[in-house]
Write a structure and sequence with these properties.
This protein has 159 residues and is of the alpha+beta class. Helix content is 26%, strand content 38%. The chain has helices at residues 17-27, 34-40, 86-99, 115-123; strands at 2-3, 8-11, 46-53, 56-66, 69-77, 105-111, 127-136, 141-149. An 8-stranded mixed sheet has the order 1-2-3-4-5-6-8-7. It is globular and about 40 Å long.
Length: 159
Amino acid sequence: MLQNNDFIIKPMSVDDIGQIMEIENVSFPTPWHEKIFEMELKKPRTLHSVCKKNNRVVGYLISWMLYDEIHILNVAVHPDCRRNGIAKKLIDYTITHFANKGAITVILEVRTSNKAAQNLYEKLGFKTLRARKNYYTDTGEDALVMMLDVSSGDKIDDI
């Protein structure tokens, strides 16, 4: 758990899903269904984190670790709370958690139209590896595959 005066980052629980769905529905053209979140909570080798402010979910991140690779599956911040470093803190929390388990890279996909997310990831040190054509089946949009090397042990806060 990570906490400061403004927010707390902690493991996601089933009780958080209602508030997560509010963020999910305003953040993505084809939001995940709440059953997907429930299923993710039961999987091994995963980390499901929420950022709360005043006991309200303002952001979340779902990730897996496969071998030595962290895969960020879903990250979103409430529109009213964006540009406050919440996504950065969630990513750093995830990297720190999995670095203790031997993670050396972080991989994610981002819509080619999501320039704000791409800019954030680039500021955090992610590099674009390639595009995946028609990755998003809802719109046919391409995804950029981005990677961050964390093998040096540096955390995003150190960058």
